[in-house]
Structures are given as structure tokens and as C-alpha cells.
Amino acid sequence: MSGVTDCYQPAEARLKVTRRCLEVLAEFRNPVSLITKNALVTRDLDVLSELARHRCASVCLSITTQDNGLRQVLEPRTTPPAARLAAIRKLAEAQIPVSVNVAPVIPGLTDHELPNILRAAREAGATAAGFTVLRLPHAVAPLFEQWLQTHFPDRKEKVLNRLKALRGGKLYDASWGTRFRGEGIFAAQIERLFAVARRQAGFAEQRDPPTLSITAFRRPGGTQLPLFQ
Q1: Where do the DSSP E strands lie in 6-156?
Q2: What was the pLDDT predicted at 2?
């Protein structure tokens, strides 16, 4: 939860849909990993802690920038960077495995922030780290170009040209295995910067979050439900 739409959108504070899902998962000790940009995840420390007792929970906080001014125009309804780092700290203190994902990395705009974000996340208690380069599928590309023109007209061409260099001359390439990283000299530079920054921050070489366990999983009533009833 969740690879496409954040499971802690602002409406979650009122609707509690994600929390109810977590309560069901906790009842059956079903493993779950969450990725979010919202510090609201700490509201559910009680349920996540119960899952984590059985190695059934991990959380990843996604951080794009530590510049709150940039965050306000890039991700206007998300939690400020300092609050995300505070959420990492709270999760770590509650013994819930927590990682950081620097995403999206925008070449020519936010890529230089990788070392500082990784250092701050590690100091807050994150034990694993990853990154994802900006992806611009379908209608997202023209929206992003318009956003650059509005907020960063002086960097627009540099950013777009760097993205094209990562994608074989296009703004987007859905090829499996490279769509999250890109290819070419600039992709290699970002990869090296991340590797060095991760090591200097004190993260282990393994970038993935800890493996969860299904050992404690339990069925309803202790028996398998019948197929026909």
C-alpha cells in the first residue's frame, strides 16, 4: 500500500479507510508494506506496532526535497519534509521497520539533494534507502512542462533535456528494468551519487526494506472457509 495512489491522502484523516484495512490485516497478521508521503501514517502506530511484532509490517517515507518552498509548489497537499523525517523517527522508535525513498529525483532540480536527504533520514532512524527518477507517462509530461514554465522557466530546458537524456531522447520510456532509473551518463551519475551518499550516511548496502514474514498468519476462526456454502 500503495504503488500508485498514496494511501494516506488528506481525506484519510477523516475517512480512515487505510486504518480499517490495516486493522483487518492485523487481525489475520497479514504482512503489509506501506509507502507514503504523509506523516499521518504515525496515527496508526498502534496497529503497525502490532503487525511489526510478528514481522508483518514495514513503512517507507517518500521524500522529494528538503526545501519546503519547493515542496509547496511541487507537492502542495503533502506533509512538509521536516514532518516526514519526524514520522521516520516515530516509526523507528516504535520498532517498526522504516525506510526512505528519495522520489521522484528530478535531474537538474532536486538530484543534488540526495546526500542531505539520505543523511537526515538515516539520522532519524531509517534503515534502508532507495530512489526513483521522475517518470512522465502519458498526460503527465505536458503537465510537468507547464509546471516548469510556471515555476522554473530558467531551468525548464535543462531539466527536460536531462530527462530526455535518461530516456533515449524521449520524456518517457516504459521499458522494464530502466523506467525507474533511466539509462546513459546522467543516470549513471545519479546512481553513483546515491551509492556514495547512502554509504556515507551509514546505510547498509542492501537498499530494500526488510523481508516480511507469513509465519504468524492466521485464518478466520482457525480454519479455511469453505468454497461453497
Answers
A1: 32-36, 57-63, 98-105, 128-133
A2: 80
Residue 205 DSSP label: S
pTM, rounded to two decimals: 0.91
Mean pLDDT across the stretch 54-74?
Answer: 96
- Name the nearest CA neighbour of 133 among 196, 68, 181: 181
The sheet that has 57-63: what strands, in order across it? 32-36, 57-63, 98-105, 128-133
> CA 118 to CA 150: how far, in whole Å?
29
One of 2.60.40.60, 3.40.50.300, 3.30.870.10, 3.80.30.30 is the CATH number of 12-134+175-208, namely 3.80.30.30
pLDDT exceeds cutoff 90 at 63: yes
What b/e sequence results for 52-72 when a residue is b if at least 16 CB atoms lie within 10 Å of its CB, and e otherwise? bebbbbbbbbbbbbbeeebbe
Whether residue 85 has pLDDT greater than 70? yes
Instruction: Locate the domains of the chain by residue range.
Output: 12-134+175-208
